[in-house]
From TrEMBL:
Protein family according to the UniProt entry: Belongs to the calreticulin family.
UniProt cross-references to Gene3D superfamilies, sorted A to Z: 2.60.120.200, Calreticulin/calnexin, P domain
Basic and acidic residues bias spans: 266-285, 327-344, 518-528, 571-582
Signal peptide: 1-20
Membrane spanning stretches: 471-493
InterPro entries: Calret/calnex, Calret/calnex_CS, Calreticulin/calnexin_P_dom_sf, ConA-like_dom_sf
Organism for this UniProt entry: Sarcophilus harrisii (Tasmanian devil)
Keyword tags: Acetylation, Calcium, Chaperone, Disulfide bond, Endoplasmic reticulum, Membrane, Phosphoprotein, Repeat, Signal, Transmembrane, Transmembrane helix
Major localization listed first in the record, in broad terms: endoplasmic reticulum
Start and end residues of each stretch annotated as Disordered: 255-344, 503-610
Lipid bilayer topology: Single-pass type I membrane protein
Protein name listed in UniProt: Calmegin
GO cellular component: endoplasmic reticulum membrane
Length: 610
């Protein structure tokens, strides 16, 4: 039972490790709002046979796009050229198409697909009305699927600043934007941008402010070929949240969690301040009182020829290390007028197995080398510390307590470069109510998620797929398959033999005895007792001879004393009887020991003899 429990625990542990690798929960879950909880709850109630219907916003929205009608209505392809770029790739000529998903397609659902590799793409569309930052939140949400994975490229959107000179046909990388949001990757660097352009209230120069980096692993969102939902929420209280698949992956304050910070420091270093010439910032200085030792020899070289080395036997001093290749032939098309005199290529001399050329002693470190003498360093008594410029009031200081009030925007654009094709975009929505965005996702992205989950491969296929990227899983699989056989071999067979031995010994101990066997044991014990008594009797017979002789002498003495009175004889008789009784009593008390019967017989005989 102990080994069965051990095996069960081990299997649970291995299953947990593999399951953790296969799950799509790499994002650390922090907070779910109420609406997203309802979505997860309702997910289990939906039928596997999904019937897709183009989502409709349940409230006011500034922009929505599903691409389900198959027409790029309201979208404008850029005709601009990218500046400061090679002329061959400067044009925004990347191709866009409206297509179904390549995998886990939902009938009736389509999206915008970036089709070209190594080209610039730019497309944009106007909002139904500009979004003005005031007292309402901003919610931006859309879907992305890297259908071919991602090598290098972006899938972010730009919310284009509302101004009089905004022209979507001239949309390019330097077109002013208010917010840039979405995934981006190049090499092994995976990013989720949230950047906004902030207007300096004094200089009126726009600066890019980058939100802090999400503390999650974003790699899987670029490689799993699944449709992921990206959501940005900005609140009038200057807080923000970033979601992936309705799970918070980043959140913070516009005042504290962006770089560079919104508000500059009150004081800055004086640019006109200079370090004094006599400022001593040396921590240590040479000890001028120290003297070079008299035996310090600076003339010794760092290395010397090894005096113990000798030229190896077989070293050829007169042979060159390289010779011309005797098998080489001048090419037939070699023209000495054009190519010069032909020379055979040189190869290592095969005769130089030990060595060739002038032999020299190898160099070794010189044990007498001490180098140039320098005085030791001591603490600088005049050290003044590291010099820094003095602080002065910042002439550009300001304090903005409400950076949420950004420049309004009136269009959404995709301006991208990608080395990977078939990037899928779908179901854009911009609104001011999170519940509207959640309901929009429930009717669109959640349907894709259910279809993808229903089409997921079986457990065995998932295990093989996981092992392709994680070689160490093969070790776990091998242990899982082979460990039961090892446990059976090591523990089951030896334990069975021990049980048989124990049963055999146990049967010997508790084997019942028959009546005949008991009688035989009694006879053997009785015979042993009789042998002991006979030995004692022989010893007593020897002693009794001496006793009888003494008794005859005593009888003679008694015959001489015939004149004794009858009272004296009676008293003697009583005395003998008392002694005899005492002897019998002692014999009875001695029956508790093993030699009790022998002692009692001996004492009776002595009493009779008396």
């Amino acid at each position: 039972m102990q080994f069965q429990g051990f095996w069960l625990c081990l299997n649970l542990l291995l299953f947990t490790l593999v399951k953790a690798e296969l799950q799509d929960e790499d994002v650390e879950m922090e907070d779910f709002d109420e609406s997203s909880e309802e979505i997860v709850t309702n997910e289990d109630k939906l039928s596997p046979e999904v019937k897709y219907k183009t989502p409709q916003p349940i409230g006011e929205a500034y922009f929505t796009e599903t691409f389900d009608n198959g027409i790029l209505t309201g979208w404008v392809l850029s005709k601009a050229r990218k500046e400061d770029t090679d002329e061959n790739i400067a044009k925004y000529d990347g191709r866009w198409e409206i297509e179904d998903l390549k995998e886990n397609r939902v009938p009736g659902d389509r999206g915008l697909v970036l089709k070209s590799q190594a080209k610039h793409h730019a497309i944009s569309a106007l909002l139904s009305k500009p979004f003005i930052f005031a007292d309402k939140p901003l919610i931006v949400q859309y879907e992305v699927n890297f259908q071919n994975g991602m090598d290098c490229g972006g899938a972010y959107i730009k919310l284009l600043t509302d101004n009089d000179y905004l022209n979507l046909e001239n949309f390019f990388d330097k077109t002013p934007y208010t917010i840039m949001f979405g995934p981006d990757k190049c090499g092994e660097e995976h990013k989720l941008h949230f950047i906004f352009r902030y207007k300096h209230p004094k200089t009126e120069v726009f600066e890019e402010k980058h939100a802090k980096v999400p503390n999650v692993d974003l790699k899987k969102f670029f490689s799993d070929k699944k449709t992921h939902l990206y959501t940005l929420v900005m609140n009038p209280d200057n807080t923000f949240e970033v979601y992936i698949d309705q799970v918070i992956v980043n959140q913070g304050s516009l005042l504290e969690d962006v770089d560079p910070p919104i508000n500059p420091p009150k004081e800055i270093e004086d640019p006109n301040d200079k370090k004094p010439d006599d400022w001593d910032d040396r921590i240590e200085i040479p000890d001028n009182t120290s003297v070079k030792p008299e035996d310090w020899d600076e003339s010794q070289p760092a290395q010397i020829a090894d005096p113990d080395a000798f030229k190896p036997e077989g070293w050829l001093d007169d042979e060159p290390e390289y010779i011309e290749d005797p098998n080489a032939e001048k090419p037939s098309d070699w023209n000495e007028d054009m190519d010069g005199k032909w020379e055979a290529p040189r190869i290592p001399n095969p005769a130089c197995k030990i060595g060739c050329g002038q032999w020299q002693h190898p160099m070794i470190d010189n044990p007498k080398y001490r180098g140039k003498w320098e005085p030791p360093m001591i603490d600088n008594p005049n050290y003044q510390g590291e010099w820094t410029p003095r602080k002065i009031p910042n002439p550009d200081y300001y304090e903005d307590r409400n950076p949420f009030l950004l420049s309004s925007f009136s269009a959404l654009g995709l301006e991208l470069w990608s080395m990977t094709s078939d990037i899928y975009f779908d179901n854009f929505i911009i609104c001011s109510d999170k519940e509207i965005a959640d309901r929009w996702a429930e009717d669109s992205w959640m349907v894709k998620k259910l279809v993808a989950r229903a089409n997921e491969p079986g457990v065995f296929t998932q295990l093989l797929t996981a092992a392709e990227e994680r070689w160490w899983l093969w070790i776990i699989y091998a242990l899982t398959a082979g460990l039961p056989l090892i446990l059976i071999t090591l523990f089951c067979w030896p334990r069975k033999k021990k049980d048989e031995d124990a049963e055999y010994k146990k049967s010997d101990i508790h084997k019942p005895q028959t009546k005949g066997a008991l009688e035989q044991e009694v006879k053997e014990e009785k015979a042993a007792l009789e042998n002991t008594i006979n030995l004692e009797e022989e010893k007593e017979n020897h002693n009794n001879g001496e006793i009888e002789k003494e008794e005859e002498d005593e009888m003679e003495e008694k015959s001489e004393e015939e004149n004794e009175t009858i009272e004296g004889q009676e008293e003697g008789s009583k005395s003998n009887k008392s002694g005899s009784e005492d002897e019998m009593k002692e014999a009875d008390e001695s029956t508790g020991s093993g030699d009790g019967p022998v002692k009692s017989v001996r004492k009776r005989r002595r009493a009779c003899a008396d």
